[in-house]
Amino acid sequence: MSSSRDQDIYKTIDAYVKGRLNESDIERLWVEIAKDPDLLDRLELETGVKKILDERKMSSKKKATVHSLPNWVWHASAAATILLVALVQLFRVETHTTLNDFIVSTIPVDQLEVADGLRSQDFVISSADSLLNLGFAAVSSGDQEKALSIFNEVISNYDEEPYASKAFLNRGIIFYNDGKYPEAITNFTEAATRAKENRMISEKAFWYLGNAYVNTGALEDALLAVGEAYKRDGVFRKSAYVLYQKLSYDLGKVDFEETSSGDN
User: Fold this and answer.
1) pLDDT at position 37
2) For a Cys staple, 195 with which of 47, 87, 201, 226, CB 3.0–4.6 Å?
3) From residue 134, how far is each of 139, 144, 178, 184 by CA, in Å?
């Protein structure tokens, strides 16, 4: 976001806090926030999230009714609450958003799991670690078949953690990028199950599992997987939250009928 755009956003926020915005201006503000989730962190620091929420609560006579969302949604931070309001506005206005706007088209190579030693520059690693690194090198050079063969070897010969879950996750990424979503789902599910004690690997597995489910049209399954990714409160938290709300909206789990009728 440019400096001039920053200033415009903050002026709009200031006007909102002081009650100087009309309804259409408020909707435009929420849409801007929804487009840039990172803005939430800056809002929390520079404008006072609590004051914004209090103003919103006092000025809103009717609210969206949310049915049977998990408890973790309602215990999210104040910043996440603002994002929810922003998403309501984003989905209601004429933005023509689709689920494809919220999922990953291609998973970057750097999302592959390698030896922990490689990331920490500790080169005293096991045979399983070496195979994971060789598989990563094969994918990086475009040889997916060789990489799959290497990851299969890890699963067959080193069926223990964290090696197996890493190998399954890497296989899932390869299948996902090849458009083989059912195969990706199988491998991401296995990785998530095996890595239940490893927050980082399980979060990544659930996040990409949710994306794969979206690509197959299994939206209820996608909702559950993305929710699991969100609960792990890691690097995919914001993306998972946004996709969760979009899935909820498309599945009819968020009812805006009352709110819409109140706008007439």
Assistant:
1) 60
2) 201
3) 9, 12, 20, 21
Tokens of 80: 């996440």
Q: CA–CA separation, 199 vs 229, rounded Å?
A: 9
Distances (CA, A) of 231 to 74, 107, 220, 234: 12, 21, 17, 8
Neighbours of 146 (CB within 10 A): 15
Q: What is the maximal distance between C-alpha atoms in the chain?
A: 68
CATH 1.25.40.10 corresponds to the domain 109-247? yes
Q: Does the pLDDT of residue 211 top 50, yes or no?
A: yes
Q: How far apart are the two ends of the chain, measured CA to CA in Å?
A: 34
Range list of H helices, the chain: 3-17, 23-35, 39-43, 49-59, 71-74, 78-92, 116-120, 127-140, 144-157, 163-177, 181-194, 199-216, 219-231, 237-250, 257-263
> 254: part of which helix (H) or strand (E)?
strand 254-255
Secondary structure class of 241 (helix, strand, coil): helix
The residue among 158, 159, 154, 191 whose CA lies nearest residue 173 is 191
In the 3-class helix/strand/coil scheme, how is 36-102 assigned residue by residue? CCCHHHHHHHHHHHHHHHHHHHHHCCCCCEECCCCHHHHCCCHHHHHHHHHHHHHHHCCCCCCHHHC
The reply to whether the predicted model has a pTM over 0.85 is no
Domain boundary assignment for the chain? 3-96, 109-247
Cα 114–118–119 angle (5° rounding)? 90
Tell me which H or E stretch contains 104.
Answer: none
The answer on pLDDT for 33 being more than 60 is: yes
